[in-house]
Amino acid sequence: MKIQYVTLNLFQGLLGRRSRNKFGMTEKMTGRLYFRMKIYIYGIIDSNGGIDESIRGVKGAPIQNIPYRDMGIVVSRFDEPKGITKTNALEHEDVLERLMKRFTVLPLKFRTLFNREEDFLSIMEDHYGDFWENLDRLRNKAEFGIKVIWSGDRIRERIERDYCKTNPGTPEASDPHGNRYIEEKFEKYQIEKEFEEKAEICISIIDNFLNKFAAEKKLEKSKSRDILLNAFYLVEKGRQKDFKEAFEIFKIAPGGFNYKLLGPLPPYDFVKIDGREGVTL
Question: How many CB atoms lie within 10 A of CB 16?
Answer without folding.
Answer: 16
